[in-house]
Design a protein that fits this description.
By secondary structure, the chain is mostly beta strands. It is built from three helices and 114 strands. The strands form 32 sheets. Strands 3-2-1-24 form a four-stranded antiparallel sheet, with no helix packed on it. Strands 4-5-6-7 form a four-stranded antiparallel sheet, with no helix packed on it.
Length: 1516
């Protein structure tokens, strides 16, 4: 044969082979032909789902993207479905896929999942089976109808992989919990079919797969490194793969071959069973491959004939589950439902017996109809702290109380129709529903009340308010007319009973109680059950308190909720995080319902359709217009506060007027028009009510409390209580100017009459001289007069409401405790005690007349219409009489001994004044005044000056500021002003020292409780030191003293432990540091001269008074003084004063003229103002000494005592060259005397050095921080000021060698380089920060902390990733074209080979192998333990994580048999590194195990994007 014919013949052969290949490929793509030797692998990674044809491993297609933490995967070939689980998203989803088309994702399971680790699809009945390693359950769901059922929940520890065999009705799963095993059971969940088939020689069983033809099970063990096989009975066990396995995870079988994923090698491997190997690596994947299946229809063959569940779903209404027992299937109900009575095929559509559990931020329901007790979280929104729940059986709503949101809400059982029904002013705790009367009751431990309302939230009423200390649980017996509640106050714990209207109160249990929490009632047998969280018991007694006995006391740590249904008692345990039940009669038969469910609080058990009894309130609300209460004797109608029950005793009406009274710690209402409608307001923390006033137009009550020294207010129904004014003396008279919106009061202790706006702002003293125990006060706004009685002068006086022209109106009236004005009659009435009588006179002082004189002790009176009402202190009655002659006398109320005030709240139209319109144009106070128009004048808050426009006010420019532990005040010496006044600032606690910035009007104070310096704006209106304040300096361990440089905008402070003077900028906090520090120095008290620019301090270590420039330079000793207790400087004279040894000393700033100013007592506070030295010490009153009269004795300042600090605030020198820092900038200490610029913080203290190989962040910081040197210039900011990343020079690009040096290229770094900020090409990555040059690999020296650069995986082989993602092309002609090209290439190669053989050429030199050691596979990039900064010291017993309210120490749940993880370090030693950074920040693949959460943590933490189900592994 000629050469040409041979070539043509070879071409024909190649062409025929090509045609056959194209035909086979076409048939395969059309589904007519399968190449069994080249299956398609379907596998998941942490972020996607991929498919790869084993004949073309270089091309891998990603079919699902965007997974948060992909885990298990499976397919349903007959329906073209791919299904997978996502652990972080807590989802099981499916998607259509037919090799040419990808459909939309469909959620199959989205609730009740935590770590779905294995899934298996039943292709006979289209169901998904899955395991969950956190819920410890095996479940099933129908893909189409989504009927879901829990199959196994007990003795399922950490189930992993699962496989099903539909033809046998069996399923198999691996469990690597404390007792590792492989189990088998029927697919219907029949517990009798459950069997452990492998329990020996097993440690970490991971993947499992089935050989359906031979009925064999293969599985991998990641700890023992083998693949074994057994039959379905667990027999005939043999080893298949014994060596070279590193960490196998998932396993698949196809055509006598095994395929598995390996987390250590990041690869998919295969093993031919028929040839007994060898093991081959198919795919190198990045990220790590997780689960694996062979995507082929032969793995899911369907029977040709009938099979169970094929026809009409087996006749089942919901689930038809395959079974290994005849008839091969079983009807089942979704979890929570049960089969109907006398039926094996039909289920109820929903659970009939339920538990509702409150879990703070969630509410779950648990069906009692199925034995698995699976909880399902209701889809509710905005739950913050739901503590208790109850159920309305009539309308089937659940109700819950949220103590954080202060609301009571309701929703349907499926979570729909969620609404808030009650917005509480207190804190609703436990709730109970009366389904017959349609009322809801709740306890309120904030107001110490029991409340009731209609179920829609209307008609709210407080029914019990007295002798409640900490009311907790509440339960109702509607048919008997009783309610029961617990009170767990530690001093007087108790359980009580009352009628549903609050009457008939009875103490049931008060002994051997500690924390009675839950209460439950057996309304059939009239039994009361309760749980005690401190004695750890459940007890029971009769409903009258008799026959008390202990029911259960075993393993109860902190019982909270308690409920009863049928024969069982259920309770929640906060600490154990369990819900258990026992027999209600014997206390035995304990059974756990739910275990390890976080934050379980209140619980309610009920059965739908149960009868809930009957009473008269059940029909038409008993005819009541508002509230109907059943009682043991009869039912009663009542009204919410503000309404009164009419004469028919059923209808509530709004009264025209009623009386408001106070006595001791009670404020109440007394009806005038309808008897029997008296009520007490639900006000908490009343100590001693001394005065009372009503504001009708604002529907408010105002009162003073002589014990708390406050004036308070609330709504007329007792809600919305708030504090208006503090730091009062003894306020015994209150009056409201309803037109100008001002409140007036008399203060018997300070002998003053004061006024303020109704909100407490703009407080001012009107009269502070010439008063003798002022008592009651009344106003006549229309005429501009106020009237008051004086107990000291026994007279009634009058003055303008602006405090002008005080005069005596009526003398010799005795001790008058109460006044009232008749505006129509123009008369004034008063009740006197010496002698006891009720009199009146006209407002001009004439016509005085006795109305009633045969009274015991008339202490208070009020007027309404034509009657006068008075209360008798001694006999406790309230009487009425005609106001004209005292006739028609009548007792309208009794039992109010020690009554202190009586006012009328009436809906009458009051006359307005000019102040009623826009406050008369005044910026602050509009005060009515007698005389011609305009009959008012504008006034300012105390110490403010009225501007020239007579409308606005200006703040005082110079004053003395003083502080008590929780109050701030001001002293101004000026004509026409009361010298002292308090500043309306609330919320102060434990003030140590103060200063004031007049530029921004900020008060600065040193807080001993929070160890910080804070500031808050202060003015004439009320501000809060809690909500309105900001922190300037924090972290002070022992703060001592501070002072402001107002001109230079700096704050200086000392601490008793740092022995330094520190400074910070107060405008932007941009600069801070140390001004002074030195050997043996102990600076303590500070003073600052604003204009001369001197910093003065006493040094307890050197025993001297020192002076220095503002930057700490030019230190000068002024005087010797050891243990000085106070220090100040006179801003006018420049004299320095200090207190020591019961004396006050002085010295000039030039250290001359040392002298003693005063002696005679200890002083802890010192200040100069207006030519006086003010000082105070301990409980003593503030004293002052005149500087110009040294021989004069110290005089007390009235009404100011117990000071902790005082500071002179001088006029702000805006013309000074250092104002706002001048030309020197805003750094502390920058602007010195005369505006000369100093070195600020640069010349203060010598910087503290760090240890070798450490970097100093900020030398000027009070507590300098040192970080490891190799953290500098690594691209991550570690110093707060960023010093470690500044001035990096040649390292700016991110290439910094590990030894701290900089290099132009990676190869120049002998110890590696930091490559976190910028990835380096051709670099070996040790971890997320350190990279090595190729020359450092396998050189016999360990450079990576985990030794991965010398590991066998790195040095043994090297290979690039073979996996390349891309869109899959399925065009058969493209495939054929590729084959043609390949064949042509083969032909050309064959011809070239023949020519080469004929040529006599020397062999070409060999090229370097592509498997070069310098080319490192992803597997060699070993993952090391995450870097952590050394932990800070914690108090003994403190936890490293925030825990819930339950005690975490009791409930660790260690994994006795934890799986390994690619994240595990090789040596087990955690390096000392900085805080963990998420793997996303470093572009590294996720660790394959999610971080474990604390066993007691309430809220789940976000898990890492990792595939497998295990908790964080231990380091081995």
């Amino acid at each position: 044969m000629t050469k040409r014919r041979r070539i043509l013949h070879a071409d024909k052969i190649i062409q025929n082979v090509m045609n056959v290949f194209c035909l086979l490929m076409f048939l395969q793509l059309r589904g007519y032909y399968s190449v069994v030797s080249n299956p398609i692998l379907l596998y998941s990674t942490a972020s996607d789902i991929r498919v790869a044809n084993t004949s073309k491993l270089s091309k891998v297609n990603t079919i699902v993207k965007g997974l948060e933490q992909g885990s298990a995967v499976d397919f349903l070939h007959s329906k073209d479905l791919i299904c997978w689980s996502d652990q972080t998203a807590e989802l099981i989803q499916c998607m259509s896929y037919n090799e040419t088309h990808v459909g939309e994702k469909v959620r199959i399971v989205s609730e009740g999942l935590i770590t779905p680790t294995g899934i298996a699809i039943d292709w006979y009945t289209d169901k998904i089976y899955w395991t969950d390693g956190e819920t410890n359950k095996i479940e099933v769901i129908s893909i189409k109808q989504k009927y879901r059922k829990v199959l196994f929940w007990s003795e399922v520890d950490l189930a992993r992989a699962i496989a099903v065999v539909p033809k046998e009705g069996l399923m198999f799963w691996t469990d690597w919990g404390e007792v590792p095993k492989i189990e088998r059971a029927g697919m219907n969940g029949d517990p009798t079919t459950r069997k452990i088939i492998v329990k020996e020689n097993i440690f970490w069983p991971n993947g499992i797969t089935i050989d359906y033809d031979k009925n064999l099970i293969y599985w991998v063990d990641a700890k023992l490194h083998f693949v074994d096989v057994i039959d379905f009975n667990g027999e005939k066990r043999k080893s298949v793969v014994k060596e070279d396995l590193v960490y196998p995870y998932a396993l698949a079988f196809y055509n006598n071959k095994l395929y598995w994923t390996d987390w250590k090698t990041w690869s998919i491997h295969t093993w031919d069973i028929s040839t007994n190997g060898p093991m081959k690596e198919l795919i190198k994947s990045d990220p790590v491959p997780v689960d694996l299946k062979v995507y082929d229809g032969s793995r899911q063959l369907m029977p040709t004939g009938d099979y169970p569940c094929k026809v009409n779903n087996g006749g089942c209404s919901h689930l038809c589950l395959l079974s290994p027992k005849p008839p091969g299937y079983q009807c089942a109900c979704p979890t929570g439902s049960k089969l109907k009575e006398n039926s094996n095929t039909t289920c109820y559509n929903s659970p009939q017996s339920l538990l509702i559990v409150a879990q703070r931020s969630a509410i779950s329901k648990i069906s009692l109809d199925s034995p698995d007790f699976t909880p399902y979280t209701l889809p509710l929104k905005d739950l913050k702290r739901a503590l208790t729940v109850d159920f309305d059986p009539k309308n089937e709503y659940i109700y819950w109380a949220d103590s954080s949101a202060k609301t009571i809400s309701r929703a349907r059982l499926d979570g729909s129709e969620q609404t808030v029904v009650i917005h509480s002013t207190g804190v609703p705790d436990s709730i109970a529903i009366d389904p017959l009367a349609r009322n809801i009751y709740w306890t309120d431990p904030a107001t110490d009340t029991i409340n009731v309302a209609r179920l829609d939230g209307s008609s709210r009423k407080v029914i019990i308010h007295n002798e409640l200390l900490d009311p907790r649980a509440i339960a109702l017996h509607p048919t008997a007319g009783w309610m029961f509640w617990s009170d767990w106050n530690e001093k007087k714990p108790k359980i009580e009973r009352a009628n549903l209207d609050g009457s008939g109160r009875m103490l049931l249990v008060s002994e051997k109680l500690a924390w009675p929490n839950g209460i439950a009632l057996d309304t059939v047998n009239n039994k009361l059950y309760w749980g005690d969280a401190r004695t750890h018991k459940i007890e029971v007694c009769n409903m009258d308190g008799t026959e008390r006995r202990e029911l259960h006391n075993s393993e109860i740590l902190h019982i909270f909720g308690l409920t009863l249904l049928g024969e069982h008692l259920y309770w929640t345990d906060m600490q154990k995080r369990t819900l258990d039940r026992i027999n209600k009669n014997t206390g035995l038969e304990r059974q756990p319902v739910v275990e390890q469910m976080a934050n379980m609080m209140g619980v309610k058990a009920f059965r739908l359709g149960d009868s809930y009894g009957w009473n008269q309130c059940a029909e038409n609300n008993g005819g009541c217009s508002h509230l109907c209460f059943n009682t043991p004797e009869h039912y009663v109608c009542t009204c919410p506060l503000g309404l009164e029950l009419g004469k028919d005793k059923k209808t509530c009406v709004e009264p025209d007027a009623f009386l408001v009274y106070s006595r001791k710690n009670v404020i109440g209402h007394i009806s005038i028009e309808n008897e029997g409608n008296d009520a007490v307001l639900p006000l908490k923390d009343l100590k001693e009510v001394s005065a009372l006033a009503v504001h009708v137009s604002g529907s408010k009550l105002y009162w003073s409390d002589s014990k708390t020294k406050t004036i308070n207010r609330c709504s007329i129904n007792g809600s919305n209580m708030e504090k208006v004014l503090e730091w009062m003396g003894l306020v015994e008279g209150l009056a409201i100017d309803w037109s100008a919106q001002n409140i007036y009061w008399t203060d018997t202790a300070t002998q003053r009459i004061e006024v303020a706006r109704l909100d407490g702002s703009s407080r001012r003293a009107l009269i502070w001289q010439g008063l003798k125990k002022p008592k009651s006060i009344v106003l006549d706004p229309k005429r501009g007069f106020m009237y008051w009685s004086e107990l000291g002068s026994k007279s009634i006086k009058r003055a303008g409401m602006d405090g002008s022209s005080p005069t005596i109106l009526i003398e010799q009236v005795g001790k008058v405790h109460s006044l009232a004005i008749d505006y129509e009659k123009r008369a004034i009435y008063w009740a006197a005690l010496d002698p006891p009588a009720i009199e009146f006179a006209y407002l001009n002082g004439t016509g005085r007349k006795i109305l009633v004189n045969n009274v015991s002790m008339p202490y208070t009176l009020a007027l309404h219409n034509d009657k006068i009402y008075w209360g008798d202190w001694n006999i406790g009655t309230v009487e009425s009489a005609s106001k004209s002659d005292g006739g028609s006398r009548k007792v309208i109320h009794s039992g109010v001994e020690y009554i202190s005030e009586l006012k009328v709240f009436g809906r009458w139209r009051a006359a307005t004044t000019q102040c009623g319109a826009d406050n008369g144009g005044c910026a602050h106070l509009c005060l009515a005044a007698p005389g011609a128009a305009p009959a008012y004048r504008c006034a300012c808050p105390a110490h403010y000056r009225l501007a020239r426009d007579n409308l606005t006010c200006a703040e005082p420019e110079e004053f003395l500021l003083f502080a008590q532990k929780n109050a701030i005040g001001r002293i101004v010496v000026a004509n026409g002003e009361c010298n002292d006044a308090y500043i309306p600032l609330t919320g102060l606690k434990n003030v140590k020292t103060i200063d004031y910035d007049p530029l921004n009007k900020h008060l600065y104070w040193m807080d001993e409780d929070s160890h910080s310096i804070r500031r808050v704006p202060i003015s004439y209106s009320v501000t809060s030191a809690v909500t309105d304040a900001t922190t300037v300096v924090t972290g002070l361990t022992r703060p001592f003293h501070m002072v402001l440089d107002v001109l230079g905008r700096a704050l200086y402070w000392t601490c008793a432990d740092t022995d330094s003077i520190n400074a910070t900028s107060i405008d932007n906090n941009s600069s801070s540091g140390v001004i002074l520090r030195g050997d043996n120095m102990m600076p303590r008290h500070l003073a600052f001269h604003q204009t001369k620019r001197y910093l003065i301090w006493n040094d307890a270590g050197l025993g001297v008074i020192m002076r220095a420039n503002v930057d700490g330079t030019s230190r000068t000793e002024l005087a010797r003084a050891s243990n000085a207790t106070a220090l100040t400087v006179d801003q006018t004279t420049g004299t320095v004063y200090w207190a020591v040894n019961r004396q006050i000393h002085a010295v000039d700033l030039d250290a001359s003229n040392k002298r003693v100013v005063w002696q005679g007592g200890w002083a802890g506070t010192l200040a100069t103002y207006g030519g006086w030295v003010y000082f105070s010490g301990g409980e003593r009153a503030l004293m002052r000494v005149a500087l110009h009269r040294r021989e004069a004795p110290a005089a007390p300042v009235a009404h100011v005592a117990r000071l902790v600090a005082a500071r002179h605030v001088p006029r702000l020198e805006r013309a000074h060259p250092c104002f706002l820092g001048g030309a020197c900038g805003g750094a502390p200490g920058a602007c010195g005397a005369g505006g000369a610029c100093g070195c600020a913080l640069g010349c203060g203290a010598a910087p503290r050095a760090c240890a070798p190989h450490r970097f100093l962040c900020d030398a000027a910081a009070p507590e300098p921080r040192c970080i490891p040197l190799h953290w500098k210039c690594d691209g991550q900011k570690d110093c707060e000021n960023g010093a470690d990343e500044s001035e990096c020079g040649a390292c700016v690009a991110g290439l910094r060698c590990a030894d701290g040096s900089c290099a132009a290229a990676l190869g120049a770094c002998d110890s590696g380089a930091y490559c976190e900020r910028a990835p380096l090409p051709d670099a070996f990555r040790c971890d997320e920060r350190l990279c090595l040059a190729a020359r450092l690999l396998c050189d016999g020296r360990q450079h990576c902390e985990d030794g991965s650069d010398e590991a066998v995986a790195t040095c043994g082989y090297a290979q690039k990733d073979q996996v390349v993602s891309g869109a899959r092309q399925s065009n058969a002609f493209v495939v054929c074209g590729a084959i043609v090209g390949a064949a042509g290439g083969l032909g050309a190669a064959w011809a070239a080979l023949r020519r080469w053989r004929r040529a006599a050429r020397p062999p070409a030199p060999r090229r370097a192998s592509p498997l070069s050691p310098l080319r490192v596979p992803p597997a060699a990039r070993a993952l090391v333990a995450t870097k952590r900064e050394p932990e800070r010291a914690r108090p003994l017993g403190a936890s490293t994580t925030d825990t819930s309210e339950s005690s975490c120490a009791r409930y660790p749940r260690p994994t006795a048999n934890p799986p390994p993880s690619p994240a595990t370090g090789s040596d087990g030693a955690a390096p000392r590194r900085r805080a963990y950074r998420h793997y996303r920040a470093s572009n590294r693949p996720p660790p394959p195990t999610p971080a474990s959460t604390d066993a007691c943590e309430s809220e789940p933490e976000p898990a890492a994007r990792a595939p497998p189900p295990s908790p964080a592994p231990l380091l081995y």
